[in-house]
Amino acid sequence: xxxxxxxxxxxxxxxxxxxxxxxxxxxSYLYDDTTxxxxxxxxxxxxxxxxxxxxxxxxxxxxCKVVYNKGGLSQGLEYLTFLEDxxxxxxxxxxxxNELYIFDNPILQYPSKMTIGSHWDESPDGKNRLYExxxxxxxxxxxxxxxxVKIKYNVFPNDGFFNVGxxxxxxxxxxxxxxxxxxxxxxxxxxxxxxxxxxSIKIHRIN
Length: 207
Prior knowledge:
67% strand, disordered N terminus, mainly beta
């Protein structure tokens, strides 16, 4: 979708009960097997992702929005609280085991009034992700245009999913994620094969 650079004062993420967002995720893989020096044909798959704000609830004295993510990389519930200085994750519940995991301290997802130069870190379980707003953008989708900030982030150290040096960009509006692009490569050794897998993900909102 077209991205137009805009002059924008700031973006503050805020959800309301009843908000629902639909995304298309495009994944592609390319395997470089150095034992045969051949590149396998890229495999491409599409998935529909939905994010819905279900209700309000209290956790550890924080008033939280219960956010249900279905499809894509992770499925389950997030419990987000919106404080004066930003949006924080208080807890999560995975569809895999249905256990509620409450973070020792709320994790900052997006600070208030994000603009070029805003930066913060997220450090769950000792995995440090460094975020920086690098630009403003207006993104056109099937349902309209969104004023966004463009966020780039890095991971230190490798966290088992993202790796140091991965190219990760998010476009965030006042209603959260509008677009994401991610590319990575990982060394693979299995059953006598040695090589790399090149992985790419693109996500864009369609409503």
